[in-house]
Amino acid sequence: MSKALKLTLAAAIAGATLLAGCASPPPPQHHPAYLHALSDLRAARWLIEHRPGDWAQTVDEVDAVRQIDGAINDIKQAAIDDGKNLDYHPPVDERPDHHGRIHAAIDYLKKARGDIEREEDNGWANSPRIHAIGHIDSAIHAARRVFND
Length: 149
Prior knowledge:
Layout: H1 3-23, H2 33-49, H3 59-81, H4 98-116, H5 123-145
């Protein structure tokens, strides 16, 4: 084989190798559920905290907000461990009636729990995820107690 042919063949192989590396698809986004859960938790928190008129916040509402804050912190840690951008905060629609507002908050809490309840494949994020589920369950329980007052 001639020297020119060997050089051409080597250049072609090197070029094909470089192009093959460029053509690979980007890695998939892992766990967008964290971002959905954060959005749902923030919405639930907003609905519980922002009461129209002169309604006083109940002890159960305070407990629900405290549990939501715990879940938000745990999910943020799991999302940071997973490399997520936490800057997205969509607005929440205001609800003028007390019971409708609490029911909507419970719906958001259930959605947040559903977003994060499947097992994590990133071992570093498992512990915060499990703690967040506990906080969400406690927040749902506290929000439901509002109706018993």
